[in-house]
Design a protein that fits this description.
Blueprint: H1 3-16, E1 22-27, E2 30-35, E3 44-47, H2 53-69, E4 80-88, E5 91-98, H3 105-123, H4 137-147, H5 150-164, E6 187-193, H6 196-209, H7 213-229, E7 233-240, E8 257-264, H8 271-287, H9 293-300, E9 314-320, H10 325-336, E10 358-365, E11 368-376, H11 382-401, H12 415-424, H13 438-448, E12 453-457, E13 460-463, H14 464-480, E14 488-491, H15 497-508, E15 512-515, H16 522-532, E16 536-539, E17 553-556, H17 561-565, E18 581-586, E19 596-600, H18 601-614, E20 622-625, H19 633-642, E21 647-650, H20 653-656, H21 659-668, E22 673-676, H22 678-685, H23 690-693, E23 699-702, H24 709-718, E24 723-730, E25 735-741, E26 755-756, E27 760-765, E28 791-796
Parallel strand pairs: 3-4, 9-10, 12-21, 14-15, 14-16, 16-17, 20-21, 22-23, 23-24
Antiparallel strand pairs: 1-2, 4-5, 6-11, 7-8, 10-11, 12-13, 18-19, 24-25, 25-26, 27-28
């Protein structure tokens, strides 16, 4: 390397271009451009020739990364730095770092071309072959200020006002992590090279459809974003060179402008149709490209948010790469010394920054197309971006294969991914007594722990043997009233020991219980009784007056106590199994008319066995029952522990309504597990020193409502030693379909709903019933994205 010629070449470029001699000072609270009359660069050289080749690349990468992360002083300058690494006598690597305020991608080409020409001339002792520049960057800036005023400015502004009216402020991509309140701009990048065959096919499609390659790639990228988000209004930013005048083509400087490209994705168009929409938007933007993006933001005044960029958070661009610095240095070396062999040095240079959530850059070179994604590491895991690149490549392949395909059905998921999500992650088969019934499982537990306490309440207590005897007597009495398999029996009792006796008695008689919450309006109770045509109603004397008119035969737990007590205490042969009804629970009716959901014995048993296998009960555990029978969570609260020999503490309604008394009762009964809705969890977490007040309460299960991230974080702070289990499902699918163990203590963007429980299959679908994927790199978090999709399908092997 002729280092003197190299320095001479660099300084000639600095002399030629005022932008490289520019700094920015503050005068009267305004930034002012200051151009130094002269500036001399000296190339800093680091000698690595003494290191083995294997260490040279590592050292070079580290030095380059440090160099790129070193900040500039805009007021003092210079805003260009050089670093030369000497690897051997005939092998050197040069890094040139410029601040973006004085350079852009086009600058890279100008700089490389001039460096090549000047270095070659100076090595041969010749003068500069370059002509003097007709104008400087400052001349352009002055002209732009004078031209972009009045009618010209208003025409530009009016186009963008109309184009962006009502545009969504946020592209709602599912995130791996919670968005921080203020952007840190920490980032990383990944790349992908497309095959030459795919590149040529994309070019051919673009030519066939009368679009540019950029438009075709942009349409494909927006299709991917549409499939990820289900949004029909997709807005991305895209850079444009901004050099639409001949005088600017040879200048170094920041000419680039950012265009906001908004596309209507609605109506599930074919890709060809979408290409037409993208083409129209792009051409309109090019025609009005002279309005600086900063001026546009100032005019539209979008709501500013320190956590994200205004107008768009994702960018896309296509860069034409004609010659790299490596090519320049290699061709120069070869032109000077024919027998030289400047082998490539593979360098891993990571800037570690990201201006946007995602910056998707395509590069068109002699070897075809490549893609590089710069992404915020505050938001995305590395594995997510890896899969995104794969999805984009797969989508491009399917687009060129079928450009007439509709965007909602163009495949982008590989066969391997489909196999993993549709088959492997749904391989949840597990054994359980599916031919048995809830009460048979209870009877088996009675044989194992007859003298253990089964139920306690403020005024009563029953052992397993005592509870079983009383339930058997009620079952015998109900059998004489006509209760048998599939017979519906209403139950209207306050939360008490008698209520548990009533439920078991109905099941042992072979019937299916229909909860009638005494707190519900008579109108709703009347609707349930009419809809089910319940033949028998179990209640107590004090409740008779609270019930609407009905035609059911009434069995009073206290009024008929003497007759019930004369029945046998032996187990009753119910004649039912796993396929029979266990209960009918009515939905709230928030989406229309309330529906009675018929729960089978084996559906409940499957849920019990999954929980027992995943979170086994330990000796001395105590659960509590506090949920209305009209909610399916009550099934797990009551029978989950009773079928495992675990004590259940009954919490009366009056206690449940008083958070202070509830805390006292949980502590007094040494409750170890609780099932509750997030709204109740929030109330409990308002207590100070919760961990010390409820030291025994290890397992907290939430369901029935979405668990917010702030509540999740609050729980982790208040109960650091406890386990939070987030369950998801609905009454229509035997309640719980997925589960997520939040004990991982991981920082999340949303609280996952987890993965399928045993013998359950879960599929994430979009509005067009196509599989939806969003990867976090770990399958355990897969369920997080179910809550982000617009349509969820859940099936089970025990109730299709």
């Amino acid at each position: 390397l002729n280092q003197a010629a190299l320095e001479q070449s660099l300084n000639e470029i600095v002399r030629r271009h005022e932008a490289l001699r520019t700094t920015f000072s503050i005068v009267d609270n305004q930034p002012v451009q200051v151009i130094a009359p002269s500036l001399s660069l000296s190339v800093r050289m680091v000698d690595l020739a003494h290191l083995p080749e294997s260490e040279q690349a590592t050292k070079a990468s580290r030095l380059f990364t440090e160099e790129t992360r070193q900040s500039f002083d805009l007021s003092r300058g210079p805003l260009i730095r050089t670093l030369l690494l000497r690897l051997s006598e005939d092998k050197n690597v040069l890094l040139v770092t410029m601040h973006h305020i004085i350079s852009d991608a086009w600058t890279y080409e100008v700089f490389s071309r001039e460096l090549h020409a000047l270095y070659e001339a100076y090595c041969e002792g010749q003068p500069s072959p370059l002509e003097e520049l007709p104008i400087q960057y400052a001349d352009f800036a002055v002209w732009q200020r004078q031209w972009l005023t009045g009618e010209v400015l208003e025409k530009q502004l009016e186009y963008w006002r109309q184009q962006l009216a009502g545009a969504p402020a946020v592209l709602d991509l599912p995130l791996d992590k919670a968005r921080p309140p203020v952007q840190s701009f920490r980032g990383a990048s990944q790349s992908l090279t497309l095959s030459e065959e795919l590149t040529e096919s994309l070019k051919a499609l673009s030519q066939q459809e009368g679009t540019t390659l950029f438009m075709t790639l942009l349409a494909a990228f927006k299709t991917l974003l549409h499939r990820y988000t289900s949004q029909d209004d997709i807005v991305v930013g895209s850079s444009i060179a901004g050099r639409n005048r001949a005088e600017t083509e040879g200048l170094i400087g920041f000419f680039i402008n950012t265009l906001v490209l908004r596309t209507d994705m609605s109506g599930n168009p074919t890709f060809r149709e979408l290409l037409g929409r993208v083409r129209e938007v792009a051409l309109g933007a090019y025609e009005h490209q002279d309005l600086p993006f900063e001026k546009l933001v100032e005019e539209l005044q979008p709501e500013r948010d320190m956590s994200r960029n205004p107008l768009f958070q994702v960018t896309f661009q296509l860069v034409n790469v004609t010659k790299s610095v490596d090519d320049v240095l290699e061709s120069t070396a070869e032109s000077i010394e024919d027998d030289s062999d400047p082998s490539d040095l593979s360098l891993d240079i990571e800037r570690g920054t990201a201006i946007f959530d995602l910056a998707f850059d395509m590069y068109e070179g002699d070897d075809g197309l490549s893609a590089e994604v710069e992404y915020s590491t505050d938001l995305f895991e590395d594995a997510t971006i890896t899969y995104m690149l794969r999805h984009f490549e797969s989508l491009l392949e399917n687009i060129v294969a079928n450009p007439s395909g509709r965007i909602a059905s163009l495949p982008f998921i590989s066969t391997e991914e489909q196999q993993q999500v549709l088959v492997e992650w749904n391989d949840t088969g597990a054994s359980y007594p599916q031919s048995s019934s809830i009460h048979e499982a209870f009877e088996f537990q009675v044989e194992r722990t007859p003298d253990a306490v089964a139920i306690i309440s403020p005024d009563a207590q029953l052992t397993y043997r005592e509870l079983n005897k009383r339930a058997n007597q009620l079952a015998g009495y109900l059998r004489k009233r006509g209760v048998g398999p599939e017979v519906l029996v209403g139950i209207c009792l306050p939360r008490s020991v008698e209520m548990i006796v009533g439920l078991l008695g109905i099941l042992k008689a072979g019937g299916a219980y229909v909860p009638l919450d005494p707190a519900y309006p008579k109108q709703r109770l009347a609707m349930i009784l009419k809809d089910t045509a319940a033949a028998v109603l179990v209640t107590e004397e004090g409740m008779r007056g609270e019930l609407p008119e009905h035609g059911a035969s009434v069995v009073s737990i206290d009024g008929d106590r003497e007759e019930i007590g004369r029945e046998s205490v032996e187990n009753v042969e119910s004649g039912v199994g796993g396929e029979n009804l266990a209960y009918i629970i009515y939905t709230s009716g928030s989406t229309g008319t309330p529906k009675g959901v018929m729960g089978l014995h084996r559906g409940a048993l499957n849920r019990f066995f999954w929980m027992w296998e995943t979170y086994p009960f330990e000796a001395g555990e105590i659960c509590c029952q506090k949920t209305s029978l009209n909610f399916v969570d009550s099934v797990w609260e009551i029978f989950g522990p009773l079928l495992s020999g675990v004590r259940v503490a009954i919490i009366p309604d009056i206690v449940l309504k008083d958070p202070y008394r509830l805390m006292q009762m949980l502590a007094a009964n040494r409750v170890t597990r609780i099932v509750l809705v997030p709204s109740l969890l929030r109330v409990i977490l308002e207590n100070e020193d919760l961990q010390s007040k409820l030291p025994k309460l290890k397992y907290w299960t939430t369901s029935g409502e979405a668990l917010s991230i702030d509540l999740f974080d609050q729980f982790q702070k208040s109960m650091p030693d406890a386990i939070l289990i987030n369950l998801y499902g609905s009454s229509e699918v035997a309640a719980d379909a997925t589960g997520f163990d939040a004990s991982e203590r991981k920082k999340l963007a949303n609280v996952p709903i987890g993965r399928p429980i045993a013998n359950t299959e879960v599929y994430i679908l979009d509005e067009n019933f196509q599989p939806v994927l969003w990867w976090t790199g770990t399958s355990s978090l897969w369920g997080e994205w179910i809550s982000r999709s617009r349509c969820v399908g859940i099936g089970s092997s025990w109730e299709r």
